[in-house]
Design brief:
By secondary structure, the protein is mainly beta. The protein is about 5% helix and about 45% strand. It has a 17-stranded parallel beta sheet. An 11-stranded parallel beta sheet has the order 24-27-30-33-36-39-42-45-47-49-52, with no helix packed on it. It has a 7-stranded mixed beta sheet with strand order 13-12-14-16-18-20-22, with no helix packed on it.
Length: about 650
């Protein structure tokens, strides 16, 4: 891409060669000069391309306590890092040992498994590598992998099942990665034996026997297959209870228990207050709270693994005095009330799907979401969610709205950051909601990745002080469908960010608002028209990629930019691309230097496609012609650096 050439830091050798060419060819004509410059730059870039290779590997250690009788317990992670993006390489095998586990090893652990989470550093038991190794001893064991690696860091996780009668006086679980084989070559991780180990707790495990009542002793057995004994009393302090896969249990009578674990495929429905010292929900486990809790001490400690689900179906408190919710766990709310949320909870994926609730103020109550924030329903007609006061909402995943009402800020400033995508599939999104006193409300929405507007209503022009910002060093796509009603307020593409308009439309910029491409930012318009009664601003050192066959104009209803007011900087880059043929530059005025532009780039779909000048232009620096050609059309193109005028055919 030409954009990469604009940014790249060329080697000193290349700079000298370009300077020499610029000096010796200035008289002979602009087009020759530009093609040579571009080809040399591409040659230097091509030399840097590399195929994928193994770079290094290391290990990470889990040091938390582990319950006797628990399964799929993470011991160590192996991070395999690659370089380059060519043909992928494969890991053929991993060799481990259970060194560090209490002896004899076979009396403490069993069922070694290896899991893969790709580039995701969060552990989950979704993709298994190789086959389970049921019996473990003091000898090394091998997983045959044949796993294709991704560019960058790849995460593998070794888990063990801890036996019911494992040593706990004290007992430990640990492992070492002894070898990673890629092709015919064996590698040793930089750190193969990370510091620390997991200590086995002295709990007495019992396992569910079916779809029974949680609080009945006959619902439990000391052996997973039911060949043991039930507990003498449910509330004995060392007892821990494991709901096994396929078992759906109910807690309909109040009880006090020490520890409860919901394993993958297990489910628990709570219809009467249940007091627990510790609640663990494993990946694939589900717990549903149907009863109203008026304080959060229902669970003293609440742990949710990645892939675990909690369903809140009451207007009471979210349970857990101390919450450890993994980023890819899900908290789904069918109901909620004014006391349900509190700021110290770092949610995983937060989902609102409430059909019959009133509007709620989440200001100062919901602040940290480690995964996605998904809005499906927000209650009765005209009920929605809003944030009062000066509030902060940090979403480390995506913002997804499928229904309901999001009123944004009310009576204050809501600063919301979205680390991934911003998606509207339905419902109504507004930047702000004025209170009865008509006090000012402001939304500062900062999005790092794609903006996808498919259906519903998206309006960010309710408050003159609100701003929708696309930021970071990456690239965002703006994908907008006609079914989505869009009115835009202040939109900013921040420094170093790239926005590509990929949809069928771009929302109207409302009167009194601006669409600003900041210094160092880039906007790719394709053939979509940016219009409205507001203003378009292209700042100094920004880049505008123009795909419309008419180019851009300072006035009238022609070209990519058709807002009521348009400001084009004389220090910006103007990039003409796509297959529009013939394409016009358009007639546009630049500021502060009239008819002067920083850079001109031509990158058409083929060499036969033409860009026609529509006015005289002066270039601050040589332009780049990747594909296509430039025709003067009776106008002049002057290059200040070469101090020459190019007469184009």
């Amino acid at each position: 891409m030409a954009r990469k050439n604009l940014r790249q830091q060329t080697a000193l050798k290349t700079k000298l060669r370009l300077t020499l060419i610029a000096t010796t060819t200035a008289i002979s004509g602009l087009v020759v000069l530009l093609i040579v410059v571009f080809n040399l730059t591409k040659k230097e870039e091509g030399r840097a391309a590399t195929s994928m290779t193994y770079k290094q590997s290391t290990t990470v250690q889990d040091t938390s306590g582990v319950l006797r009788g628990s399964i799929n317990q993470k011991v160590i992670g192996v991070v395999v890092e690659t370089s380059g993006k060519g043909t992928p390489v494969k890991v053929n095998s991993f060799t481990f040992s259970a060194t560090g586990t209490s002896m004899p090893i076979e009396q403490n652990i069993e069922n070694a498994r290896l899991w893969y989470t790709g580039n995701d550093p969060e552990f989950s038991i979704q993709q298994i590598v190789g086959t389970t190794i049921p019996t473990l001893t003091d000898k090394p064991f091998v997983f045959s992998a044949s796993q294709t690696l991704l560019p960058g860091k790849n995460f593998f996780w070794l888990t063990f099942d801890v036996l019911t009668n494992a040593n706990s006086t004290p007992g430990t679980v640990d492992a070492i990665c002894k070898e990673i084989r890629i092709g015919a070559i064996s590698y040793l991780p930089v750190v193969s034996d990370p510091m620390g180990k997991r200590f086995i707790q002295s709990n007495i495990p019992f396992y569910s026997m079916g779809n029974f009542s949680l609080t009945k002793v006959n619902s439990w057995n000391s052996k997973r297959d039911g060949s043991g004994m039930p507990p003498r009393q449910m509330n004995e302090v060392r007892n821990s209870y494991f709901i096994q896969a396929g078992h759906r249990m109910i807690s309909s009578t109040g009880s006090n228990l020490q520890t409860l674990v919901i394993e993958k495929g297990g489910e628990l429905r709570i219809t009467s207050p249940l007091r627990l010292n510790a609640m663990y929900v494993a990946c694939g486990g589900v717990v549903q709270m149907d009863t109203t809790i008026n304080d959060f001490y229902s669970f003293n400690e609440f742990y949710m693994d990645n892939g675990a689900m909690y369903i809140h179906n009451s207007t009471g408190w979210f349970p857990g005095l101390k919450n450890m919710l993994s980023p890819k766990s899900t908290q789904l709310f069918f109901k909620y009330g004014t006391n349900t949320f509190r700021p110290e909870i770092n949610f995983g994926n937060l989902v609102l799907d409430a059909a019959d609730v009133a509007s709620i103020d989440l200001g100062g109550k919901v602040e940290q979401i480690q995964g996605d924030f998904e809005i499906r329903k927000t209650g009765r007609e005209l009920s929605g969610i809003h944030f009062s006061g000066n509030s902060n909402l940090k979403i480390q995943g995506s913002f997804i709205q499928m229904g309901g009402l999001f009123f944004g800020a009310s009576n204050g400033i809501l600063t919301c950051s979205v680390a991934q995508d911003f998606i509207i599939k339905g419902g109504e999104f507004y930047d702000s909601k004025m209170d009865k006193a008509k006090q000012k409300a402001t939304l500062k929405m900062n999005v790092k990745e794609d903006v996808i507007l498919l259906n519903g209503i998206f309006m960010t022009d309710m408050s003159s002080t609100s701003e929708f910002i696309l930021s970071g060093n990456g690239t965002s796509r703006w994908i907008q469908k006609p079914l989505c009603k869009v009115n835009l307020g202040n939109i900013t593409v921040a420094n170093t960010h790239v926005l590509q308009i990929k949809g069928e439309a771009f929302g109207d910029i409302s009167k009194g608002y601006s669409f600003q491409i900041s210094d160092g930012a880039e906007l790719y318009c394709e053939k979509v028209v940016v219009k409205g009664e507001g203003e378009f601003v292209l700042e100094n050192n920004a880049m505008l990629a123009i795909g419309h066959p008419e180019g851009i104009y300072s006035n009238g209803s022609k070209g990519n930019i058709q807002t009521a007011k348009r400001t084009f900087s004389s220090g910006a880059t103007y990039y003409y691309y796509l297959n529009s043929h013939p394409q016009e530059t358009g007639v546009f005025q630049t500021q502060p230097k009239q008819n002067v532009i920083g850079k001109l780039v031509v990158n058409k779909a083929s060499t036969s496609q033409v860009l026609n000048l529509s006015q005289n232009l002066i270039l601050e620096s040589p332009c780049m012609v990747t594909l296509g050609d430039i025709r003067s059309n009776g106008f002049e193109l002057k290059v200040k650096e070469a101090i020459s005028t190019a007469k184009l055919n």
